[in-house]
Amino acid sequence: IKTFHTPSFNNSISSLFYYGKAKSEAQIEWENALLLQAHGFNTIPLAAFGEQTVCGFEKRSFFISEEIKDSIPLDDWLAHNRDYTLMNDLLTFIGLQIKKLHDAGFSYPDLYLKHMFINVNAVKKGDYIFSYLDLHRLRKKKKCSLQERIRDLTAFFFSAEPFLNSGQVDIALTAYTDSHTEKKLLQSKIEERCAKLRSRRSHDKGIITRRVQSDNGMLFINENYYSALHEAGIDTFEALFSHQTDGQNITDNPGRHVDTFSLGSGNATSVFYIKKHTPRKRQHTSKSRKEIYNAAREEWRNHLICQRFEVNVPVPVAWGYKSDYSASIMITSEIHNGVSLETVLHESRLTPELKEECINQIAFMARALHSRNFFHKDFYAGHIFIQQENGSVKFYLLDLQRLKKHMLSPKRWCVKDLAQLQFTTRFRAITLKDRIDFLHCYLQCSKLDKSGRALFRAIQKKTQKIENHIPKVLKRKNIHSWEHIKDNA
């Protein structure tokens, strides 16, 4: 069963323009499967689909199919096949199949190896039977354009890179094309697009993940930490979720719990932070389940985004989710000898040299994100950690769950981030001159111009709003110590 929860409104609008009426993702996939079957292509055995709409637009839908018997994904087959003569024959057949697909007018952007299932019993008899799945983005036209053909072929060859050499790629392309000139053109375009895809994914900074699927969930593990988790017997979602923690209870809020656990002993001990997302009380709707799944997934992605922008973050170790999306987890490594900026300020440990580093490096963090329209939304001093080792100082940004890109009204989110930082650094050690110096570094100017002064005033105004709002929050949480907190600061 494949479910679609609260799909993008853009998808509904695009289906309205393409089909003449709004269709659900499940209905589109169902009709595409029937369309492929009518043209002689094998697909997943259909069972049923259902949908719920609001004002004619999809709210949620599901698609049910039977198992494809005696078949496995093509990438699994290629990974274990050692008969290269058989593989070359298969690649010729695949090239002809993709050509047949395009000649029939089908555009298939998701033409990845994992979406092509091969019948293993038929292969043993010298026959090749493929079934296609994940068809909700497939489109039928009178004729496939060159760009659509290049895009589909790129999807196939990019997903096949771990299994095929250049000679085998050439075999498939030779079968697909009618002339040497056409093959050369497609080959150059495909190589160019594959290079762009590799470049786009290079922000992973060499983080290779291993997917571990179990009966109750899915876990994605940083390859560098897989052996440690595997040896400890916690390399599945359920094992990690139920693993005995150190009991520090870093955060214990409704729906979110952060704790630590250790692996190893003595000097080889490694400490990890585990953040668990679960439903809040009386919240078990499909919307809350999607939020739970997205919470861990988005935080993992945000770690990779920050690494791409050269913003220091804790090393992401693993993330995963329960099969029914009722829980998810995110694990990061500990920042060795790290202490929060909030603690440094509260304990009066801010030396003039460290203060200068704070101004420069935190301004760089903010500018690196804001200049690309990414905003942290929880840019508090407690989420900035300082690591002092071997005479060097490094700053780390934590709690990236809410970091998001905003193309519309970026100034609003910029002011909010900087006001959050200013509000949580209102200690005697931080002077007005320090705040202006910070803005100089952030804006990369020696003197504030008209727009710089306007930004400064907007930050002051937003900071005051935050201060006025805090007592209401504390009162709601039954905490009445705001005046005491202000006096201590």
Describe the structure.
- This protein has helices at about 10-20, 25-40, 75-80, 85-105, 120-125, 145-160, 165-175, 180-200, 225-230, 235-240, 285-310, 340-345, 350-370, 410-425, 430-445, 450-475, 480-489; strands at about 1-5, 40-45, 45-55, 55-65, 70-75, 105, 115-120, 130, 140, 210-215, 215-220, 250-255, 255-265, 270-275, 315-320, 330-335, 340, 375, 385-390, 390-395, 405.
- Strands 10-11-15-16-14-13-12 form a seven-stranded antiparallel beta sheet, with helices on both faces. Strands 2-8-7-5 form a four-stranded mixed beta sheet. Strands 1-4-3 form a three-stranded antiparallel beta sheet.
- The mean pLDDT is about 85.
- The protein is an alpha+beta fold.
- The chain has four domains: about 1-65, no CATH class; about 75-205, Transferase(Phosphotransferase) domain 1 (Transferase(Phosphotransferase), domain 1, Orthogonal Bundle), CATH 1.10.510.10; about 210-335; about 340-489, Transferase(Phosphotransferase), domain 1.
- The chain has 17 helices and 21 strands.
- Strand 13 and strand 14 (about 270-275) form a beta hairpin.
- Helix 13 (about 350-370) crosses helix 15 and helix 14 (about 410-425) crosses helix 16 (about 450-475).
